[in-house]
Amino acid sequence: MNETKELLIKFEEALANADSSEALEALRVEYCGKKGHVAGLMGQLKNVPNEEKKAFGQAVNEVKQEIEKKLAEAQAEIVKKEEQKLIDSAEDYDVSLPMDMEMGSYHPITLIQREVEEIFRTMGFTIEDFSEIVDDFNCFEALNIPKHHPARDMQDTYYLSSGQLLKTHTSAAQNSIMKKYGAPLRAIFPGRCFRNESTDASHENTFFQMEGIMIDEDISISNLIYFMKTMLSEVFGQDVTVRLRPGFFPFVEPGFELDIQCLVCGGEGCPTCKHSGWLELCPCGMIHPNVLNYGGIDTEKYTGFAFGLGLTRLAMMKYGIKDIRILNSGNLKSLSQFIGK
Amino acid sequence: MFVSMNWINEFVDLSGLNIEELIHRFTLSTAEVEDIYYKGNDLEKVVAGKIISIENHPNSKKLHLLKVDVGEKVLDIVCGAPNVREGMVVPVAMAGGRVCGGEIKNAVVAGYESAGMCCSESELGISDDHSGLMEIFEDVALGTDICDIYPVKDIIFEVDNKSLTNRPDLWGHYGIAREFSAITKRPLRALAIDECEYDGEEIPVEVKSDAVYRYSALRINNIKKTVSPVAMRIRLFYCGMRGINLLADLTNYLMLEMGQPMHAFDGKKVQSIGIGMAENGGKFTTLDGVERDTGENTLLILNNDEPVAVAGIMGGLDSEIVGDTDSVVLESANFDGVCVRKTSSRMGLRTDASARYEKILDPEMTVTAIRRFVKLLKDIDDGAVVVSKLADKYVKKYPEIELFIDKKYVDRYTGISFSNEQIEETLVSLGFKVTAENDGFKVIVPSWRSTKDVTIKADLIEEITRIFGYDNFEIKTTLSALKPVRAEAVKSEDALIKDLLVNKFKLHEVHSYIWCDGKKYKKLGIDVEENCTILNIPTPENGTIRNSMIPTLLTIAYENKSFAPTFGIFECGRVVDGYLENGYCNERRRLGVVLYDKVGTEKDLYFKMLNMLKFIFRDIKHDDADFTKAVTVAHAYQHPKNTAEISWGGEKLGEMFTLHPMNNQKLDKNAAVVCAEIDLDKFFAIAVADAKYADPSKFPAIDYDLSLVIADKKYADIKAAWESKNIPELTSAKVIDMFDDGTTKSMTVRLSFSAPDRTLAMDEIQAHIDSILASLKEIGVELKQ
After folding, report:
1. Which of residues 165-204 of A touch B (CB under 8 A)?
2. Residues of B in Cβ contact (< 8 Å) with A267
3. Domains of chain B by start residue, with CATH
4. ipTM score for this prediction
5. Distance, CA of A341 to CA of B4 (rounded, Å)
6. What pTM was computed for the model?
7. Mind listing the pLDDT tens digit for each residue in B714-764?
8. Of chain A residues 97-136, which have a CB less than 8 A from chain B?
9. Tens digits of per-residue pLDDT, A268-314?
10. Cα Rg of chain B, angstroms
11. Residue A104 is nearest to which of B165, B503, B560, comparing CB atoms?
12. CA distances from residue B88 to A35, B104, B114 in whole angstroms, order as listed
């Protein structure tokens, strides 16, 4: 039995010097190959007395298994070492490097418009679009603005050689939308408006508004307050306090100015709200029966409310834009900052 | 407009109420209050003092040394006022007191002790007169506090005039007092007026224009007083007017009190009144001393055919009340508001009177205002005598408005429940006549609300709710049925286009103006093309509406040259593309894109644009648009050769082009610029194709590359060679290489063949290839040797 022990000792000595897959393979052939040492030992079985044959065979097999096991272990060890070598030699990437990314940008009005439209869409409002060039009927007549009303004066309205005009307010779409859908109706219609006035940091002749109307049986002032409060709370992402004051607009009766409690100071008074605690935000009111009539809506059955929201003003409030002229400037140093939806 | 709470208190007793809270309620119920001023609060220890001796100051020609008796003591005061006089009683601000926010201290003035200051009206803040010391004529004990002598203390609030546009009745204190009466539920006192019968020759009044609604006039003689009482002057001053003389002040006072503009003509100069439109323009000097042109359609007040006033706006200099007049012809009239507004804006002369007439005043007021005037005048000057009958030409009367309203209507409109008592009480407090009728109310609108303001029952809702207070409303949602809402292509595809351009192609969205900026265009050598114009734009070079998005986008690209070496911009906007049959503008929604690149070649940029546009169509419409070379170009700034038309189903949707070299040079000679414009109205109208699907073939595809010498042929010519043959096994064609060495142009095309049911045999494919090559040969395209 000494032969097996000697073989194992010899193998272990050789294994200790094998440091590559190739050396291990050579060892495997030398010991466990067809003509290897183990096979050689097995060849001696015929010379072993019968009564010892069993024990001898067993011992040789054990040696063989032992050798194979050790070879496998050594092989795993070597793979591990080689992998480690790869890991050690790999480049250490600098994740802190700045990435030079080219990004496109949306116009801030697009962003605010999408946000507000989404809010109304979830409340079941249709979103409409309307032309920028309208006629006197849509802009004034159908809105109960009489012939000699100061709003029609040349100094406020851009009149065109075609006999039309650039719409001065999104309300100009009310009549067409009422005729298109009839009652009941919930719709908003954002759009670009134009006023003939000189521009400065807070005045633009081209700006965006968003008009909304809701018409149904028994729509009331209470509903108007509810919708305005809900909508504005969504827009500003916090619960807002609203208040109504009388306001005069020919196309609503009663008409209101809607104020929200100043979001900066919470109503305490600060420079943003000119120390009043309130911000005048949107004109609104119950749609004037004459306007409903012009839109072909039965005033005995239906009532409704309408409101106008200054999208441009909202964008300026939201993004802290101090000069309104940036919006139409095309200046990419400003505008390219509005990335992402 | 400024409102004096002292004045309001004359008509409604507001004692015991918090005035600030009331003013806040006024904002919520009536009109926006912009500011509150506390008058007289900064006066302390200012008392009546008598100048008992005057000595010249030894070191100054201007200064005097006064001894002033302030009752309990005599003060030494150094004073520089020119009108000092012995025996004069003046306001004295004593040391330790305050005037106009400044503290008065014992001081040494030019070497002499001064224990206080004698004050002018301006220093007291009750007028802008600082010519000399104010003299106290009233019989008061020396040492009496100035605030106990005159109504110096007052709370004045300023109402935003815009929020009064539709309320002609609120342009005077009495109307505002009515609001406070309704808000506080305290009674409104009647205006005290002179109720005498007037006798004497009536002033002849001839109305020659239908712009006159009513004209009332009265002659008053023997007016001896010329200066208004201090209390009246303070009130006028606090409300933004200057004291002039008694008669002028009284007309102003009446205007501020009742909202009725009045005019006092010199009684000696005006014998009869005619009111008519100026037939021809002429010169007329108004009482501010300015000679003005009176154009046609100017309503004038005439005395013996000579103009004495521009009706409703301003009187003339010649008939102005001056110091020595003791006779006045008083005008209290009502003119057409639109006529006054137009004249006033034409003449560039806006006055307190014209501002009121514009609001369309109640003609019922004219006579009451005259009688109120007489009452106030007689209170001040009891010698004044009315010497004419009241002339009163009431030409046009507004019809009485009668409305019916009931609780059901109010509740439905408001969403809350009002009691009948609440409805009635509110309307009555605002001057409406209310009678119960058929479970509701018959409501007669008062004359001061009948000129335009209240015409339908919805107007009554406003009256009831605003006095009730919107803060008291219940906030509740509707019971409306829910309906699904689908976004239209106009919205959803507009969003998709923007998303692609921004997120995939890294473009920047901009906004620009709808009109052409002539000056900016010129810099780029672009002419403003004829189109619809804005008639009244202040800058005529910007008066033309754009017919394309591109020129303006090019000006924006030009201005952003320093932004980045490479960038792209786009705008979804509107243009006017000629006119419709009815003469109206053909307004189109358009997408404009401009790519700018200082680094790469124009060719690369061109194909980047092409790729982008094709991507948009494939992504949104699931199909390809046709791009073909344009035969002619519509705009001079387009490149005559590299302009392509984009079309769909034979209809042109837009164009893509490089710039004419002249414009490109002006924009940037080192940069490539490529533009594209698509008509979005047409784009949105294209139906979205269903996604196409076919099982992929289980059999291998065979690629066959053809390297072709193409000369001047385009890919469109080449692909016709196989497309015309409709080979079902030909599944795709790709250009995999292009070569151009200046003399030879070649292109390698990879044709891919496969069949769903079999492996294709080589000779089968070869037959197709031979046929294709034969067709190519016909157009002069051959295999590369």
Report:
1. 166, 184, 186, 192, 194, 196, 198
2. none
3. 2-40+155-184 (3.30.56.10), 44-152 (2.40.50.140), 205-394 (3.50.40.10), 402-466 (3.30.56.10), 489-685 (3.30.930.10), 702-783 (3.30.70.380)
4. 0.86
5. 53
6. 0.86
7. 999 999 999 999 999 999 999 999 998 888 899 999 999 999 888 999 999
8. 102-107, 109-110, 114, 117, 121, 124-127, 129, 131-133, 135
9. 988 888 888 999 889 999 999 999 999 999 999 999 999 999 999 99
10. 42
11. B503
12. 145, 21, 18
